[in-house]
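User: Batch of two.

Assistant: Item 1 of 2:
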Amino acid sequence: MSKVALFGAAGVIGQSIAAALRSEGRPYRVVGRSEPGLRKAFGADPLAEIVTWNPDSPASVQAAARDVETLIYMVGVNYWQFELHPELMRKTIDGAVAAGVKNIILIGTVYPYGMAKANPVREDHPREPHTFKGRMRKAQEDLLIAAHTDGRINATVLRLPDFYGPGVEASLLHRAALAAVNGGTADMVGPIDCPHEFVFVPDVGPVVVRLLATPAAFGKIWNLAGAGVTTQRELVSEMERQTGTKLKLRVATKTMLRLIGLFNPFMREMVEMNYLMTDPLFMDDSALQELIGPIRKTPYVEGIRQTLAAAANTRAPATAT
Protein backbone atom coordinates (compact mmCIF):
# COMPACT_ATOMS: atom_id res chain seq x y z
CA MET A 1 0.00 0.00 0.00
CA SER A 2 1.25 3.48 -0.89
CA LYS A 3 1.05 5.46 2.33
CA VAL A 4 1.96 8.73 0.58
CA ALA A 5 0.32 10.03 -2.59
CA LEU A 6 1.63 12.94 -4.64
CA PHE A 7 -1.30 14.62 -6.40
CA GLY A 8 0.03 16.67 -9.29
CA ALA A 9 3.23 14.63 -9.14
CA ALA A 10 4.63 15.24 -12.62
CA GLY A 11 5.75 18.79 -11.85
CA VAL A 12 9.19 19.67 -10.56
CA ILE A 13 8.15 19.88 -6.89
CA GLY A 14 6.51 16.48 -7.13
CA GLN A 15 9.66 15.01 -8.60
CA SER A 16 11.73 16.56 -5.80
CA ILE A 17 9.49 14.99 -3.16
CA ALA A 18 9.57 11.65 -4.97
CA ALA A 19 13.37 11.74 -5.00
CA ALA A 20 13.42 12.36 -1.24
CA LEU A 21 11.03 9.45 -0.62
CA ARG A 22 13.06 7.24 -2.94
CA SER A 23 16.25 8.04 -1.05
CA GLU A 24 14.60 6.60 2.07
CA GLY A 25 13.29 3.55 0.24
CA ARG A 26 9.68 4.56 0.84
CA PRO A 27 6.95 3.54 -1.63
CA TYR A 28 4.71 6.29 -2.90
CA ARG A 29 1.85 6.87 -5.31
CA VAL A 30 2.00 9.45 -8.09
CA VAL A 31 -1.31 10.85 -9.29
CA GLY A 32 -1.85 12.92 -12.40
CA ARG A 33 -4.02 13.43 -15.43
CA SER A 34 -1.58 12.01 -18.00
CA GLU A 35 -0.36 8.43 -17.72
CA PRO A 36 2.39 8.93 -20.37
CA GLY A 37 3.71 11.92 -18.43
CA LEU A 38 3.73 9.98 -15.17
CA ARG A 39 5.43 6.98 -16.76
CA LYS A 40 8.08 9.21 -18.30
CA ALA A 41 8.86 10.74 -14.91
CA PHE A 42 8.42 7.74 -12.61
CA GLY A 43 8.16 4.60 -14.73
CA ALA A 44 11.70 3.48 -13.93
CA ASP A 45 11.17 3.65 -10.16
CA PRO A 46 9.85 0.38 -8.65
CA LEU A 47 8.78 2.33 -5.55
CA ALA A 48 6.35 4.47 -7.56
CA GLU A 49 2.73 3.39 -8.03
CA ILE A 50 1.25 5.24 -11.02
CA VAL A 51 -2.41 6.27 -10.86
CA THR A 52 -4.34 8.59 -13.16
CA TRP A 53 -7.34 10.65 -12.09
CA ASN A 54 -9.98 13.04 -13.31
CA PRO A 55 -10.12 15.80 -10.69
CA ASP A 56 -13.64 16.71 -11.83
CA SER A 57 -14.97 13.23 -10.97
CA PRO A 58 -15.69 12.53 -7.27
CA ALA A 59 -15.37 8.79 -7.88
CA SER A 60 -12.02 9.27 -9.60
CA VAL A 61 -10.69 11.46 -6.77
CA GLN A 62 -11.77 8.93 -4.17
CA ALA A 63 -10.23 6.05 -6.10
CA ALA A 64 -6.93 7.87 -6.49
CA ALA A 65 -6.82 8.51 -2.73
CA ARG A 66 -7.83 5.04 -1.61
CA ASP A 67 -5.49 3.34 0.94
CA VAL A 68 -3.44 6.53 1.31
CA GLU A 69 -2.49 7.97 4.69
CA THR A 70 -1.04 11.32 3.57
CA LEU A 71 -1.88 13.24 0.39
CA ILE A 72 0.56 15.88 -0.83
CA TYR A 73 -1.27 18.34 -3.05
CA MET A 74 0.55 20.14 -5.88
CA VAL A 75 -2.18 20.20 -8.54
CA GLY A 76 -1.56 22.94 -11.07
CA VAL A 77 -3.91 24.85 -13.32
CA ASN A 78 -3.31 27.12 -16.29
CA TYR A 79 -2.12 30.53 -15.14
CA TRP A 80 -5.25 32.07 -16.64
CA GLN A 81 -7.59 29.63 -14.84
CA PHE A 82 -6.86 30.26 -11.17
CA GLU A 83 -10.57 30.16 -10.38
CA LEU A 84 -10.18 26.38 -10.58
CA HIS A 85 -7.92 26.20 -7.51
CA PRO A 86 -10.67 26.35 -4.84
CA GLU A 87 -12.95 24.09 -6.87
CA LEU A 88 -10.31 21.38 -7.29
CA MET A 89 -9.29 21.63 -3.64
CA ARG A 90 -12.88 21.18 -2.49
CA LYS A 91 -13.31 18.09 -4.62
CA THR A 92 -9.98 16.66 -3.48
CA ILE A 93 -10.77 17.19 0.20
CA ASP A 94 -14.17 15.51 -0.20
CA GLY A 95 -12.65 12.57 -2.06
CA ALA A 96 -9.78 12.21 0.37
CA VAL A 97 -12.10 12.25 3.39
CA ALA A 98 -14.36 9.66 1.75
CA ALA A 99 -11.31 7.48 1.05
CA GLY A 100 -10.11 7.67 4.66
CA VAL A 101 -7.04 9.83 4.09
CA LYS A 102 -5.72 11.16 7.40
CA ASN A 103 -3.49 14.04 6.30
CA ILE A 104 -3.15 16.60 3.49
CA ILE A 105 -0.12 18.79 2.84
CA LEU A 106 -0.72 21.66 0.43
CA ILE A 107 2.33 23.04 -1.35
CA GLY A 108 1.42 26.71 -1.46
CA THR A 109 2.74 30.07 -2.56
CA VAL A 110 3.29 33.61 -1.27
CA TYR A 111 0.27 34.90 -3.23
CA PRO A 112 -2.23 34.82 -0.28
CA TYR A 113 -0.10 37.29 1.72
CA GLY A 114 -0.61 40.11 -0.76
CA MET A 115 1.76 43.06 -0.37
CA ALA A 116 4.41 42.59 2.30
CA LYS A 117 3.76 44.91 5.22
CA ALA A 118 7.24 44.16 6.56
CA ASN A 119 10.08 41.89 5.49
CA PRO A 120 10.82 39.14 6.17
CA VAL A 121 7.26 37.81 6.39
CA ARG A 122 6.34 35.36 9.13
CA GLU A 123 3.37 32.99 9.08
CA ASP A 124 1.30 35.41 11.19
CA HIS A 125 1.49 38.09 8.50
CA PRO A 126 -2.05 39.09 7.42
CA ARG A 127 -3.42 37.27 4.41
CA GLU A 128 -4.75 40.22 2.42
CA PRO A 129 -4.32 39.39 -1.26
CA HIS A 130 -5.06 42.25 -3.62
CA THR A 131 -4.85 40.14 -6.78
CA PHE A 132 -7.29 37.64 -8.23
CA LYS A 133 -4.67 34.90 -8.11
CA GLY A 134 -3.94 35.67 -4.49
CA ARG A 135 -7.62 35.53 -3.60
CA MET A 136 -8.02 32.17 -5.33
CA ARG A 137 -4.99 30.75 -3.53
CA LYS A 138 -6.31 32.11 -0.22
CA ALA A 139 -9.69 30.50 -0.90
CA GLN A 140 -7.87 27.22 -1.58
CA GLU A 141 -6.07 27.50 1.77
CA ASP A 142 -9.26 28.48 3.58
CA LEU A 143 -11.02 25.32 2.42
CA LEU A 144 -8.19 23.17 3.71
CA ILE A 145 -7.90 25.02 7.03
CA ALA A 146 -11.67 24.75 7.53
CA ALA A 147 -11.53 20.99 6.89
CA HIS A 148 -8.86 20.70 9.58
CA THR A 149 -10.79 22.90 12.03
CA ASP A 150 -13.91 20.81 11.48
CA GLY A 151 -11.98 17.64 12.24
CA ARG A 152 -12.49 16.14 8.80
CA ILE A 153 -8.78 15.73 8.05
CA ASN A 154 -5.39 16.87 9.36
CA ALA A 155 -4.01 19.61 7.13
CA THR A 156 -1.02 21.87 6.73
CA VAL A 157 0.34 24.30 4.15
CA LEU A 158 3.97 24.77 3.13
CA ARG A 159 4.44 28.09 1.33
CA LEU A 160 7.29 28.47 -1.16
CA PRO A 161 8.82 31.53 -2.89
CA ASP A 162 9.79 31.52 -6.57
CA PHE A 163 11.84 28.46 -7.41
CA TYR A 164 14.57 27.44 -9.82
CA GLY A 165 16.78 24.47 -10.54
CA PRO A 166 17.60 21.79 -13.10
CA GLY A 167 14.79 21.46 -15.64
CA VAL A 168 12.54 24.04 -13.95
CA GLU A 169 11.07 25.59 -17.08
CA ALA A 170 8.62 27.83 -15.21
CA SER A 171 11.46 29.60 -13.38
CA LEU A 172 12.18 33.26 -14.00
CA LEU A 173 15.78 32.16 -14.61
CA HIS A 174 15.13 29.36 -17.11
CA ARG A 175 15.58 31.36 -20.31
CA ALA A 176 18.77 32.91 -18.99
CA ALA A 177 20.19 29.45 -18.22
CA LEU A 178 19.36 28.27 -21.75
CA ALA A 179 20.98 31.35 -23.27
CA ALA A 180 24.07 30.92 -21.11
CA VAL A 181 24.79 27.45 -22.50
CA ASN A 182 23.10 27.51 -25.92
CA GLY A 183 23.45 31.11 -27.03
CA GLY A 184 20.69 33.43 -28.16
CA THR A 185 18.89 36.07 -26.14
CA ALA A 186 17.41 35.47 -22.69
CA ASP A 187 13.86 36.73 -22.18
CA MET A 188 13.39 37.84 -18.57
CA VAL A 189 10.72 39.59 -16.52
CA GLY A 190 11.84 42.81 -14.91
CA PRO A 191 12.92 44.67 -13.05
CA ILE A 192 15.87 42.34 -12.62
CA ASP A 193 17.83 44.53 -10.18
CA CYS A 194 15.26 44.41 -7.36
CA PRO A 195 15.90 42.08 -4.41
CA HIS A 196 14.33 38.65 -4.77
CA GLU A 197 14.61 35.18 -3.27
CA PHE A 198 14.51 31.75 -4.87
CA VAL A 199 14.26 28.25 -3.46
CA PHE A 200 16.25 25.50 -5.17
CA VAL A 201 13.72 22.82 -6.12
CA PRO A 202 15.79 19.78 -5.02
CA ASP A 203 15.88 21.30 -1.51
CA VAL A 204 12.07 21.16 -1.19
CA GLY A 205 11.55 17.39 -1.20
CA PRO A 206 13.56 16.63 1.95
CA VAL A 207 11.65 19.33 3.85
CA VAL A 208 8.29 17.86 2.85
CA VAL A 209 9.38 14.35 3.82
CA ARG A 210 10.40 15.64 7.25
CA LEU A 211 6.96 17.25 7.64
CA LEU A 212 5.41 13.83 6.98
CA ALA A 213 7.05 12.55 10.14
CA THR A 214 6.10 15.58 12.27
CA PRO A 215 2.54 15.41 13.65
CA ALA A 216 2.93 18.88 15.17
CA ALA A 217 3.19 20.31 11.64
CA PHE A 218 -0.52 19.82 11.01
CA GLY A 219 -3.05 22.50 11.78
CA LYS A 220 -0.61 25.30 10.91
CA ILE A 221 0.90 27.09 7.94
CA TRP A 222 4.66 27.13 7.38
CA ASN A 223 7.05 29.24 5.31
CA LEU A 224 10.05 27.83 3.50
CA ALA A 225 12.43 30.65 2.58
CA GLY A 226 14.96 30.60 -0.23
CA ALA A 227 18.73 30.56 0.02
CA GLY A 228 18.91 34.27 0.78
CA VAL A 229 18.12 37.59 -0.85
CA THR A 230 19.66 38.12 -4.27
CA THR A 231 18.63 39.66 -7.60
CA GLN A 232 18.05 38.20 -11.01
CA ARG A 233 20.92 40.36 -12.24
CA GLU A 234 23.30 38.81 -9.70
CA LEU A 235 22.29 35.30 -10.73
CA VAL A 236 22.73 36.17 -14.42
CA SER A 237 26.20 37.46 -13.55
CA GLU A 238 26.93 34.15 -11.86
CA MET A 239 25.85 32.32 -15.01
CA GLU A 240 28.21 34.54 -17.01
CA ARG A 241 31.03 33.84 -14.57
CA GLN A 242 30.54 30.08 -14.73
CA THR A 243 30.21 29.89 -18.52
CA GLY A 244 32.58 32.68 -19.48
CA THR A 245 29.85 34.06 -21.73
CA LYS A 246 28.27 37.50 -21.73
CA LEU A 247 24.48 37.06 -21.89
CA LYS A 248 22.20 39.03 -24.16
CA LEU A 249 19.11 40.00 -22.19
CA ARG A 250 15.66 41.13 -23.24
CA VAL A 251 13.85 42.33 -20.12
CA ALA A 252 10.07 42.73 -20.17
CA THR A 253 8.64 45.61 -18.15
CA LYS A 254 5.07 45.61 -16.86
CA THR A 255 4.01 47.66 -19.88
CA MET A 256 5.66 45.17 -22.21
CA LEU A 257 3.90 42.30 -20.44
CA ARG A 258 0.59 44.01 -21.14
CA LEU A 259 1.45 44.35 -24.83
CA ILE A 260 2.70 40.78 -25.18
CA GLY A 261 -0.37 39.66 -23.25
CA LEU A 262 -2.60 40.79 -26.10
CA PHE A 263 -1.39 37.65 -27.89
CA ASN A 264 -0.10 35.46 -25.04
CA PRO A 265 -2.50 34.55 -22.19
CA PHE A 266 0.32 33.49 -19.86
CA MET A 267 2.10 36.84 -20.19
CA ARG A 268 -1.19 38.67 -19.79
CA GLU A 269 -1.75 36.97 -16.45
CA MET A 270 1.73 37.88 -15.22
CA VAL A 271 0.84 41.57 -15.16
CA GLU A 272 -1.07 41.52 -11.87
CA MET A 273 1.72 39.55 -10.16
CA ASN A 274 4.46 41.94 -11.27
CA TYR A 275 4.26 43.60 -7.85
CA LEU A 276 6.38 40.71 -6.54
CA MET A 277 9.18 41.96 -8.79
CA THR A 278 8.93 45.61 -7.74
CA ASP A 279 7.81 45.17 -4.10
CA PRO A 280 9.39 41.86 -3.12
CA LEU A 281 8.27 39.61 -0.30
CA PHE A 282 10.83 37.57 1.62
CA MET A 283 9.85 34.75 3.93
CA ASP A 284 11.00 34.02 7.46
CA ASP A 285 11.16 30.25 8.01
CA SER A 286 12.55 30.30 11.55
CA ALA A 287 9.35 28.65 12.83
CA LEU A 288 9.76 25.79 10.37
CA GLN A 289 13.39 25.31 11.37
CA GLU A 290 12.40 25.27 15.02
CA LEU A 291 9.87 22.56 14.17
CA ILE A 292 11.99 20.22 12.03
CA GLY A 293 15.56 21.37 12.62
CA PRO A 294 18.11 22.99 10.29
CA ILE A 295 17.20 23.03 6.60
CA ARG A 296 19.74 22.41 3.86
CA LYS A 297 19.65 25.30 1.38
CA THR A 298 21.82 24.97 -1.68
CA PRO A 299 23.91 28.14 -2.18
CA TYR A 300 23.07 30.05 -5.35
CA VAL A 301 26.51 29.40 -6.82
CA GLU A 302 25.97 25.63 -6.63
CA GLY A 303 22.31 25.86 -7.66
CA ILE A 304 23.28 27.83 -10.77
CA ARG A 305 25.97 25.27 -11.58
CA GLN A 306 23.45 22.42 -11.50
CA THR A 307 20.88 24.46 -13.43
CA LEU A 308 23.39 25.23 -16.18
CA ALA A 309 24.45 21.57 -16.37
CA ALA A 310 20.85 20.56 -16.95
CA ALA A 311 20.33 23.34 -19.51
CA ALA A 312 23.35 22.09 -21.44
CA ASN A 313 21.47 18.83 -21.99
CA THR A 314 18.32 20.64 -23.15
CA ARG A 315 17.95 20.92 -26.90
CA ALA A 316 15.46 23.76 -26.80
CA PRO A 317 17.41 26.92 -27.66
CA ALA A 318 17.01 30.29 -26.03
CA THR A 319 15.06 32.88 -27.98
CA ALA A 320 16.87 33.65 -31.22
CA THR A 321 18.32 37.08 -31.73
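Item 2 of 2:
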Amino acid sequence: MGLFTGLPETKAAPTASVAGADGHRTRMRNRLLTAGSDSLADHEVLEMTLFLALPRRDTKPVARALLTRFRSFAGCISATPQELREIEGLGDAGVAALKTIQAAALRLMRAELIDQPVLNSWQRLMDYLTAVLAREKVEHFRVLYLDTRNRLIADEGQGRGTVNMTPVYPREIVRRALELNATALILVHNHPSGDPTPSAQDITMTRAIHAAAQPLSVMVHDHVIIGNGRWVSFRKEGLL
Protein backbone atom coordinates (compact mmCIF):
# COMPACT_ATOMS: atom_id res chain seq x y z
CA MET A 1 0.00 0.00 0.00
CA GLY A 2 1.35 3.43 -0.89
CA LEU A 3 1.89 6.19 1.63
CA PHE A 4 -0.93 8.77 1.65
CA THR A 5 0.50 12.25 1.99
CA GLY A 6 -2.64 14.32 1.51
CA LEU A 7 -1.01 16.21 -1.36
CA PRO A 8 -2.48 16.22 -4.90
CA GLU A 9 -0.76 13.88 -7.29
CA THR A 10 1.41 15.65 -9.89
CA LYS A 11 2.57 14.37 -13.24
CA ALA A 12 6.23 14.19 -14.07
CA ALA A 13 7.43 17.04 -16.25
CA PRO A 14 8.19 16.03 -19.82
CA THR A 15 11.80 15.54 -20.74
CA ALA A 16 13.53 18.30 -22.66
CA SER A 17 13.64 16.19 -25.82
CA VAL A 18 9.90 15.45 -25.75
CA ALA A 19 9.02 19.05 -24.94
CA GLY A 20 11.32 20.27 -27.70
CA ALA A 21 9.77 17.91 -30.26
CA ASP A 22 6.26 18.99 -29.26
CA GLY A 23 7.21 22.65 -29.63
CA HIS A 24 8.78 21.99 -33.02
CA ARG A 25 5.63 20.21 -34.21
CA THR A 26 3.41 23.04 -32.98
CA ARG A 27 5.51 25.63 -34.81
CA MET A 28 5.37 23.64 -38.05
CA ARG A 29 1.62 23.13 -37.72
CA ASN A 30 1.04 26.85 -37.14
CA ARG A 31 3.25 27.77 -40.08
CA LEU A 32 1.33 25.39 -42.35
CA LEU A 33 -2.03 26.79 -41.28
CA THR A 34 -1.03 30.45 -41.49
CA ALA A 35 1.49 30.61 -44.34
CA GLY A 36 0.45 27.60 -46.44
CA SER A 37 2.22 24.48 -47.67
CA ASP A 38 4.97 26.37 -49.52
CA SER A 39 6.31 27.51 -46.16
CA LEU A 40 7.39 23.95 -45.34
CA ALA A 41 10.47 22.20 -46.72
CA ASP A 42 10.20 18.62 -47.97
CA HIS A 43 11.62 17.16 -44.76
CA GLU A 44 9.10 19.14 -42.72
CA VAL A 45 6.15 17.83 -44.75
CA LEU A 46 7.49 14.33 -44.17
CA GLU A 47 7.87 15.04 -40.46
CA MET A 48 4.29 16.27 -40.17
CA THR A 49 2.98 13.28 -42.09
CA LEU A 50 4.91 10.86 -39.91
CA PHE A 51 4.11 12.37 -36.52
CA LEU A 52 0.44 11.73 -37.21
CA ALA A 53 1.33 8.03 -37.52
CA LEU A 54 4.15 8.01 -34.95
CA PRO A 55 2.99 10.43 -32.23
CA ARG A 56 5.51 9.26 -29.61
CA ARG A 57 8.55 9.43 -31.86
CA ASP A 58 10.84 12.23 -32.96
CA THR A 59 10.18 12.02 -36.69
CA LYS A 60 12.88 14.46 -37.85
CA PRO A 61 15.64 11.79 -38.07
CA VAL A 62 13.26 9.44 -39.89
CA ALA A 63 12.35 12.17 -42.40
CA ARG A 64 16.02 12.96 -42.98
CA ALA A 65 16.81 9.27 -43.50
CA LEU A 66 13.99 8.99 -46.05
CA LEU A 67 15.26 11.93 -48.08
CA THR A 68 18.82 10.63 -47.95
CA ARG A 69 17.67 7.28 -49.32
CA PHE A 70 15.00 8.37 -51.83
CA ARG A 71 16.28 11.90 -52.63
CA SER A 72 12.96 13.74 -52.92
CA PHE A 73 9.50 13.93 -51.39
CA ALA A 74 8.04 12.28 -54.49
CA GLY A 75 10.64 9.53 -54.25
CA CYS A 76 9.75 8.89 -50.61
CA ILE A 77 6.01 8.47 -51.12
CA SER A 78 6.53 6.48 -54.33
CA ALA A 79 8.94 3.96 -52.80
CA THR A 80 7.64 0.44 -52.32
CA PRO A 81 6.52 -0.69 -48.86
CA GLN A 82 9.43 -3.13 -48.84
CA GLU A 83 11.91 -0.31 -49.48
CA LEU A 84 10.32 1.94 -46.88
CA ARG A 85 10.47 -0.75 -44.21
CA GLU A 86 14.26 -0.63 -44.50
CA ILE A 87 14.24 2.85 -42.92
CA GLU A 88 14.93 2.55 -39.19
CA GLY A 89 12.07 3.73 -37.00
CA LEU A 90 9.44 3.95 -39.75
CA GLY A 91 7.45 0.78 -39.15
CA ASP A 92 4.17 -0.24 -40.75
CA ALA A 93 2.30 2.80 -39.40
CA GLY A 94 4.78 5.18 -41.01
CA VAL A 95 4.80 3.21 -44.26
CA ALA A 96 1.00 3.32 -44.40
CA ALA A 97 1.03 7.08 -43.78
CA LEU A 98 3.38 7.72 -46.71
CA LYS A 99 1.46 5.43 -49.08
CA THR A 100 -1.78 7.18 -48.04
CA ILE A 101 -0.26 10.51 -49.09
CA GLN A 102 0.68 9.00 -52.45
CA ALA A 103 -2.83 7.59 -52.93
CA ALA A 104 -4.40 10.95 -52.10
CA ALA A 105 -2.12 12.80 -54.52
CA LEU A 106 -2.90 10.41 -57.38
CA ARG A 107 -6.63 10.60 -56.70
CA LEU A 108 -6.48 14.38 -56.80
CA MET A 109 -4.69 14.32 -60.14
CA ARG A 110 -7.13 11.74 -61.54
CA ALA A 111 -10.13 13.78 -60.36
CA GLU A 112 -8.93 16.66 -62.54
CA LEU A 113 -9.07 14.37 -65.58
CA ILE A 114 -12.33 12.50 -65.04
CA ASP A 115 -15.10 13.71 -67.37
CA GLN A 116 -12.64 15.94 -69.22
CA PRO A 117 -11.69 15.63 -72.94
CA VAL A 118 -8.25 14.16 -72.27
CA LEU A 119 -6.93 14.86 -75.76
CA ASN A 120 -7.30 18.57 -74.94
CA SER A 121 -5.50 18.13 -71.61
CA TRP A 122 -2.56 16.09 -72.85
CA GLN A 123 0.15 17.55 -70.63
CA ARG A 124 -2.01 17.13 -67.55
CA LEU A 125 -2.61 13.54 -68.57
CA MET A 126 1.12 12.93 -69.03
CA ASP A 127 1.83 14.46 -65.61
CA TYR A 128 -0.69 12.08 -64.04
CA LEU A 129 0.64 9.00 -65.84
CA THR A 130 4.21 9.94 -64.96
CA ALA A 131 3.24 10.24 -61.30
CA VAL A 132 1.53 6.83 -61.43
CA LEU A 133 4.13 4.86 -63.36
CA ALA A 134 7.54 6.51 -63.70
CA ARG A 135 8.98 5.14 -60.43
CA GLU A 136 7.58 1.61 -60.67
CA LYS A 137 10.19 -1.14 -60.54
CA VAL A 138 8.26 -3.56 -62.78
CA GLU A 139 6.11 -3.06 -65.86
CA HIS A 140 2.47 -2.06 -65.40
CA PHE A 141 -0.05 -1.90 -68.23
CA ARG A 142 -3.02 0.47 -67.94
CA VAL A 143 -5.93 1.34 -70.21
CA LEU A 144 -7.75 4.67 -70.28
CA TYR A 145 -11.33 4.20 -71.49
CA LEU A 146 -12.93 7.21 -73.23
CA ASP A 147 -16.45 8.10 -74.32
CA THR A 148 -17.62 9.59 -77.62
CA ARG A 149 -16.35 13.04 -76.55
CA ASN A 150 -12.97 11.62 -75.49
CA ARG A 151 -13.77 12.15 -71.84
CA LEU A 152 -12.13 9.79 -69.38
CA ILE A 153 -14.56 7.14 -68.15
CA ALA A 154 -12.09 4.91 -66.32
CA ASP A 155 -8.38 4.33 -65.79
CA GLU A 156 -7.76 0.67 -65.05
CA GLY A 157 -4.71 -1.50 -64.53
CA GLN A 158 -4.73 -4.49 -66.86
CA GLY A 159 -1.55 -6.25 -65.90
CA ARG A 160 1.63 -6.23 -63.85
CA GLY A 161 4.69 -8.04 -65.07
CA THR A 162 8.44 -8.18 -64.68
CA VAL A 163 11.14 -5.59 -65.29
CA ASN A 164 10.67 -5.90 -69.04
CA MET A 165 7.36 -7.64 -69.79
CA THR A 166 3.67 -7.48 -68.91
CA PRO A 167 1.05 -10.02 -70.03
CA VAL A 168 -1.69 -8.27 -72.03
CA TYR A 169 -4.89 -9.79 -73.41
CA PRO A 170 -6.46 -7.79 -76.28
CA ARG A 171 -9.86 -9.51 -76.06
CA GLU A 172 -10.17 -8.68 -72.35
CA ILE A 173 -9.37 -5.03 -73.03
CA VAL A 174 -12.00 -4.79 -75.78
CA ARG A 175 -14.56 -6.68 -73.69
CA ARG A 176 -14.06 -4.20 -70.87
CA ALA A 177 -14.47 -1.29 -73.31
CA LEU A 178 -17.86 -2.65 -74.35
CA GLU A 179 -18.91 -3.07 -70.70
CA LEU A 180 -18.09 0.60 -70.05
CA ASN A 181 -19.65 1.80 -73.33
CA ALA A 182 -16.26 3.22 -74.23
CA THR A 183 -15.61 4.17 -77.84
CA ALA A 184 -11.88 4.85 -77.59
CA LEU A 185 -8.80 3.72 -75.69
CA ILE A 186 -5.42 5.06 -74.71
CA LEU A 187 -2.96 2.31 -73.84
CA VAL A 188 -0.24 3.06 -71.31
CA HIS A 189 2.66 1.17 -69.83
CA ASN A 190 6.00 1.96 -68.24
CA HIS A 191 9.58 0.90 -68.89
CA PRO A 192 11.35 0.49 -65.51
CA SER A 193 14.70 0.89 -67.31
CA GLY A 194 13.78 4.56 -67.77
CA ASP A 195 14.07 4.38 -71.57
CA PRO A 196 10.61 4.73 -73.16
CA THR A 197 11.70 3.58 -76.61
CA PRO A 198 9.09 1.07 -77.91
CA SER A 199 10.26 -2.51 -78.28
CA ALA A 200 9.26 -4.85 -81.09
CA GLN A 201 6.97 -6.62 -78.62
CA ASP A 202 5.33 -3.28 -77.71
CA ILE A 203 4.57 -2.59 -81.36
CA THR A 204 3.21 -6.09 -81.98
CA MET A 205 1.00 -5.96 -78.90
CA THR A 206 -0.39 -2.55 -79.88
CA ARG A 207 -1.30 -3.76 -83.33
CA ALA A 208 -3.03 -6.81 -81.84
CA ILE A 209 -5.20 -4.62 -79.60
CA HIS A 210 -5.99 -2.32 -82.51
CA ALA A 211 -7.00 -5.30 -84.67
CA ALA A 212 -9.28 -6.63 -81.93
CA ALA A 213 -10.91 -3.24 -81.27
CA GLN A 214 -11.48 -1.98 -84.81
CA PRO A 215 -14.29 -4.38 -85.85
CA LEU A 216 -16.26 -3.30 -82.77
CA SER A 217 -15.85 0.43 -83.54
CA VAL A 218 -13.53 0.99 -80.60
CA MET A 219 -10.67 3.29 -81.56
CA VAL A 220 -7.15 3.06 -80.13
CA HIS A 221 -6.16 6.72 -79.89
CA ASP A 222 -2.63 6.15 -78.68
CA HIS A 223 -0.19 4.00 -76.79
CA VAL A 224 2.05 5.91 -74.40
CA ILE A 225 5.20 4.49 -72.83
CA ILE A 226 6.37 6.19 -69.63
CA GLY A 227 10.07 6.28 -68.83
CA ASN A 228 12.14 8.20 -66.31
CA GLY A 229 11.27 11.82 -67.02
CA ARG A 230 10.38 11.01 -70.64
CA TRP A 231 7.48 9.48 -72.52
CA VAL A 232 6.81 8.29 -76.05
CA SER A 233 3.52 8.49 -77.97
CA PHE A 234 2.99 5.85 -80.65
CA ARG A 235 0.76 8.24 -82.59
CA LYS A 236 3.34 11.01 -82.58
CA GLU A 237 6.02 8.54 -83.66
CA GLY A 238 3.85 7.27 -86.52
CA LEU A 239 3.53 3.79 -85.02
CA LEU A 240 -0.24 3.82 -84.79
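Strands lie at 140-146, 152-160, 184-190, 219-226, 231-233.
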